[in-house]
Structures are given as C-alpha cells and as structure tokens.
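Throughout our pipeline, every protein is held as a single compact record rather than as scattered files. The record that follows is passed on verbatim for readers who wish to inspect the format.
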Amino acid sequence: MHHPLLLVLVKVTIFSLMLAIGCNFSFEKMRSFWRKPALVFRALLAVVVLVPLVVILLLKLFNLPSAVMIGLAILAASPGAPLTTKRSQQAGGSFHYSASLQLTLAILAVFVTPITLAIFTALFASISPKVAILEVARQVIMVQLLPVSVGILMQKFAPTFTQQVAKPLTFIANSLFLVLVVLVCILGLPMFSKVGELPLVAIAIMVIASLGIGHALGRFDDDTRSTLAIFCIARNFGLALFIAILNHVQQQVIPTLVAYLILGAFVGVPYSIWNKRRLAGLPQEN
C-alpha cells in the first residue's frame, strides 16, 4: 500500500476510534475518576512516566539499531491503546475505571506524546533528527482531541442520537482498527526476522516490565490492578504508526511495532487469564 493511502487509513481509524470513545464514555464518570487524585496519580505515573523510563533505560543499556530505538521511543510516547477497555475487562478489570482512564489518556496524549518524544530526542542523537515534534502535536490534536471532544459534546447536546449511533460507530471503528493491524502485520511480518535477537530481547523486557509496573501500582484487593497492567502494556499502535508515517520512518519501524504487538499479546493474554482466575478466587463483599 502506498504511503498516502496508508496515512489516510490510519487517520480515519484513529479519528473513528476516538469519536467512539467520546460517544460511549461519560464525561461525568471521568470527572468522578479525576476526583480520586491518588488513583489518577498512580495510573498516570505508571502509564506515561515509568513505562517511558523503562524504555530510556533499555536504550541506554542495549546497543540497538536506530530503527528499533525510534520504534520503541514512539511506542513509549503513545499511551491509551484502542480496545484497551475491552482487553482490561477480559482480565477482570473494572469497566468504569478502564473507561475513565482510556478517555483521560486520549485527551492527555495531545500533551504527553509530544513531550515524551521531545525527551527521547534530547537524550538520543539517533532519534533527534527523525521526529517532528510540533507536527506530531498538531496532528494528535486533529485525530485524537477533536473527535473525543465532538463525541462528548454529542452526548451532552444530542444524547438520544448519540445512543443510537454509538454501537454502530464502535463496531465500525473497531473493525477499521483490526483491518489496520492485519494490514501492518502483513507488511511487517516479512521483515520480522530482520529485527534481530537483541532487539527482541529488549522488546520482551519492555513488555514484561510494563506489565509488572501496572500490576505493582494497582491496588491488590481491587480489579484496578489488572486494568492498570493492561494499560501499561497496551501502547497505542495506531498512534505510533501515525507518528512513524508523519516522520517518514514507517518502513524502518513497522517490524518493531509488529514485534511489540506480538510479544504484548503473548505476555498479556496469559496474564489476563491468570488474573481473572485470581479475582474469581477472592472473597466477595456482601
């Protein structure tokens, strides 16, 4: 697929996903989530601070190819993956908590993504000339903040219409995302063998460390623990690919993105099964 068509597909997919989030998730419930500062602090510390910090340490410790470094940096700067709320529910997570965190990260990505990328470009010379920070910020506003805001406004001023279109819109958005993932995997799998053993080890460490961070910072006696673990491990694949295309490095970083997607599923699925069984074994409150 040619670059312009891939970029259009990525833009449409992210826009529709964010619009679906805005239409489905209540802003009032998210405000109640924001009124719990300790909960919000732990979540943001884990997802937008500690996971990128792990990646910085990995890039300092491992002598990785430039393309892998750029791919991991972009992933670290892309929190709030689509379908994370559904994935966290499959792990026994709280819908209210995951939906509120999903919407919060979608809004904060406008600031978090460019700032995180700026930190990586300042620390690593091989990344610096290849990431257009201001263009990323402008485009993230267009494809993330704008559709989320439109969805929230639709809920407020046209609630009946929004309820009618929310489910079909979510189905279309999720379908587009799955098509995008399959397409990129088809493009990236032939290059997967070229990633190299050391980069795969680094990616595996990132995946496991991210999961551990979320699990450790979540409350042990609450289903927020599994939710936070899934949110840490699930980076925004669509946004990462979008940033790569903006910076004309998609061909170089797609193998890294695909490797992370595969290893993330390989680690995340068993964790979800284990945690759901763990929660089922806990004594129920009366």
Q: What stands out?
A: The first helix runs from residue 3 to 24. The chain has one domain: 3-273. Residues 85 and 98 are 5 Å apart (CA to CA). The chain is about 80% helix and 0% strand.
